[in-house]
Design brief:
This protein has 692 residues and is of the alpha/beta class. The protein is 38% helix and 18% strand. The chain binds adenosine-5'-diphosphate (ADP) and magnesium ion.
């Protein structure tokens, strides 16, 4: 007997091609899709409520006799029908009605209605209730179970959807909806049987705990979410294992080159940097491609770990690519790597989209003939025209912006058919644990959990922009005291052009008010040389106050800058604010960040600024960001397919992730034959991205 996933919805009564198209909008194609299309809430039609006991907002069934019916002309013409039972009377109000309806309702019959109790001009009313008429109602209830309310799309009604789901449910058997979770696992994690859970959720019994159901934490819901998250976890584990089967260059020794690099630094790597580097070395010696994510808070020194890893490849004359999500960040990496590696005689190539003509041709040449051992760039690196001689390590500064496919495209530029390059992924902001355990479970993860010494914590305060002049005064005092400051202008919703305009205007106003200071301006519309020139001036201390757009969010590193003013911080995401603030607190002086917000501040804005003020721990901030914005937005394009769940909700279900992880490992070890069916049940569109 074949599974319900093979039976198209068109087999159901009432589903023709037009309805099937509408169902497709909800990703419902088969009967299996219907049974996993769960209600969002439930109505209680199991009992008839006496009219005298109605409360405002109740959605209930009432029953009574029609005692009058008339058309009234108030603000809108409407049909009013008065219903009476032993405990009181209630008005039914219809704005749209037919003459036939009016006649029917005058009949003096008994009526049973379902609707929401609202306040009308004559006491409680129901607007457009569902109703049926009879001489007398014989059954005492309309339904023995709670009535499901399903997510819909335009052109479908609840009544139709209920009928489709009900028809699909009638065909469910243990043979066409197979229990793929082994008894031992169900027992260990207290999971009710699959088929029972499905029936329960579509038709809960009258006594079901509706509050528990509304919270999404009923055992039946837990069971389905668990299985779905488990399937995702299994797919990531399989992908990871498959990738590990490939061959990659072996690097067993750190080599003299790394020693030279470290010797040239004005500081020592921190313990955390060394530990993470050792984790990387272990991967590199395995003979299989590394797929490692390096996390660390702003300023924890991820770039150096990347450079140390690169050095071990340089030793072997193997090429390393560094890919950044934006040009300004790529430029920052380019400068860093040039500064570290050129004195050691290594050619560093540079490739971004706008590099054209001869300059581009010569870079492509160096990359192809292998004279450039380090190549820094943006996504321009994986264009077809780019050929590496022996790309062996791809370092990706991800910032949640690259999709899996882009990473894979770079990997495809690997050495030859047999050897794959290693991959090191750095995230610009920490990833909340929930996401690390789900969306990033295909990667091994290292955490740099220590900041370089000498950093001073940043004191953050929020000030209303009505006190702007005080803030300006503060900037003046700091700069006159030999310190440097940033003034960040933000306008996230509007265009980049507007943002630059705002920065220009602010720079003019500040120059007028603080005429004795030397003020610079930097934004995204400046040419790269202009930007470099201004950043250079700021670094040397010739510019005291730098007015900037959020282009300085990443990469910029000027230790003497110890004051940052952020305008309209209430409009930025938490991660972005944290990144921005990470530009100060890099030197010896006590640093300050002033959040110059616009009044009135929304409740949301208050909460967000409060979080930023209270903590400077990027991991905590990332957790809060996830709570506020949800996984979809946080991840951007990355693996969005992987984050679309039928029944699970990462935020709601995050507490079960650890159990899901251990269940996945158990199944991987002992029930391998269940993996494939679970994947095909929950991940119908297999994106086999590791084979791109
Ligand atoms: P992020 O992790 O945010 O990418 P970076 O790699 O940009 O951080 O490093 C931030 C700054 O810290 C840089 O100026 C870098 O040179 C410096 N740095 C990195 N490692 C150390 C260290 N071990 N000791 C002192 N400074 C360091
Ligand atoms: Mg960085």
């Amino acid at each position: 007997m074949s599974g319900l996933e093979t039976i198209p919805v068109t087999e159901l009564k009432g589903v023709g091609s037009a309805v099937a198209e509408k169902l497709a909008k909800l990703n419902i194609y088969s009967l299996q899709d219907l049974i996993f299309h769960l209600p969002i809430r439930y109505q209680d039609r199991t009992k008839v409520v006496p009219i005298g006991r109605l409360r405002l907002g109740d959605e209930v069934v009432i029953e009574g006799d029609v005692i009058g019916c008339e058309v009234v002309m108030g603000k809108r013409r409407s049909l009013l029908c008065r219903v009476k039972d032993h405990s009181g009377t209630l008005i039914l109000r219809f704005f749209h009605f037919t003459a036939g309806q009016k006649k029917q309702l005058e009949s003096g019959k008994s009526i049973r209605c379902f609707g929401e109790v609202k306040r009308g001009s004559f006491g409680y009313e129901m607007f457009h209730p569902e109703y049926s008429l009879a001489d007398e109602f014989t059954t005492t209830t309309e339904s023995a179970q709670l009535t499901p309310t399903y997510p819909l799309t335009e052109g479908l009604t609840q009544i139709k959807m209920r009928s489709f789901c009900e028809q699909a449910l009638e065909r469910v058997t243990p043979y066409n909806v197979i229990e793929w979770l082994p008894e031992s696992i169900r027992h260990q994690f207290q999971l009710p049987p699959l088929v029972d859970s499905i029936h329960y959720l579509h038709k809960p019994p009258a006594e079901a705990d509706t509050e528990l159901l509304a919270s999404g934490k009923h055992p039946a819901q837990f069971r389905l979410s668990f299985e779905e998250l488990l399937a995702h976890q299994l797919s990531l584990i399989s992908k990871k294992q498959k990738a590990k089967l490939e061959r990659a260059p072996i690097i067993e020794e750190e080599g003299a080159f790394l020693e030279k690099l470290i010797a040239s630094l004005p500081f020592q790597p921190t313990k955390a940097q060394q530990r993470v580097f050792q984790e990387i070395m272990l991967d590199l010696s395995s003979g299989h491609p590394m797929l490692r994510l390096v996390q660390g808070d702003v300023g924890s020194g991820k770039t150096l770990v990347a450079a140390m890893s690169a050095a071990t490849f340089i030793e072997k004359k193997r090429q390393v690519a560094i890919m950044a999500p934006t040009e300004i960040l790529a430029e920052q990496h380019f400068n860093n790597f040039k500064q570290w590696f050129e004195p050691l005689g290594v050619e560093v190539a540079w490739l971004v989209g706008k590099l054209k003509g001869n300059a581009r041709a010569s870079q492509l040449e160096s990359i192809a003939n292998g004279s450039a051992l380090i190549v820094v760039g943006t996504h321009a690196l994986f264009q077809d025209s780019v050929h590496f001689k022996n790309l062996s390590l791809a370092i990706i500064d991800e910032q949640h912006r690259f999709g899996v496919h882009q990473r894979m495209a770079l990997r495809a530029k690997g050495i030859d058919g047999k050897l794959q390059p290693h991959q090191l992924i750095m995230t610009a902001t920490p990833i909340p644990r929930t996401l690390a355990m789900s969306a990033y479970a295909d990667l091994d993860c290292s955490i740099i959990d220590e900041l370089p010494p000498g950093r001073t914590p940043v004191t953050t305060i929020a000030v209303s922009d009505q006190r702007r002049h005080e803030v300006m005064e503060r900037v003046k005092v700091a700069c006159n005291d030999g310190k440097q400051a940033y003034w960040v202008c933000t306008l996230v919703e509007e265009s980049e052009a507007l943002q630059c305009q705002a920065a220009e205007d602010t720079a003019i106003r500040l120059s007028e008010a603080l005429s004795e200071l030397s003020i610079g301006l930097i934004h995204g519309r400046l040419k790269p040389q202009e930007k470099a020139e201004i950043m250079g001036q700021f670094k040397q201390g010739n510019i005291q106050l730098l007015v900037a757009t959020t282009v300085i969010e990443v990469g910029v590193d000027v230790p003497n800058a110890s004051l940052m003013v952020i305008e309209n911080p209430e409009r930025l995401g938490l991660a972005q604010l944290h990144q921005l603030r990470g530009r100060v607190g890099r030197g010896q002086a006590a640093s300050h960040c002033v959040l110059l917000y616009k009044t009135p501040l929304s409740q949301h804005g208050k909460v967000r600024l409060g979080i930023i003020r209270e903590t400077s721990d990027g991991f905590k901030i990332a957790e809060k960001d996830l709570e506020i914005r949800g996984p979809g937005e946080l991840l951007g394009s990355r693996q969005t397919g992987l984050m679309e769940f039928k029944v699970a909700d990462l935020q709601r279900d995050k507490a079960m992730l650890e159990q899901v992880q251990s269940a996945a490992l158990l199944i991987h070890q002992s029930h391998h034959e269940h993996i494939e069916p679970l994947l095909s049940r929950w991940l119908p569109v297999q994106q086999d991205y590791l084979n791109v």
